[in-house]
Amino acid sequence: MTRGMSQEWIAGLFADPELLRMGHHQRAEDQNLGLGWLYYAFGRIVRPRLAVVVGSWRGFAPIMFAKALQDNLEQGEVVFIDPSLADDFWKDAGRVKDYFRQHGVGNIRHFPMTTQQFVTTADYRALGKLGLVFIDGLHTEAQASFDYAAFSPLLETRGFVMLHDSMIVRPDKVYGSEKAYGMSVKLFVDRLKQDPSLQLLDLPFGHTGVTLLRKLDEEATRDPYDWLDGGPR
Ligand SMILES: C[S@@+](CC[C@H](N)C(=O)[O-])C[C@H]1O[C@@H](n2cnc3c(N)ncnc32)[C@H](O)[C@@H]1O
Question: For atom 20 of ligand 1, which residue has the closest CA?
Answer without folding.
Answer: 114
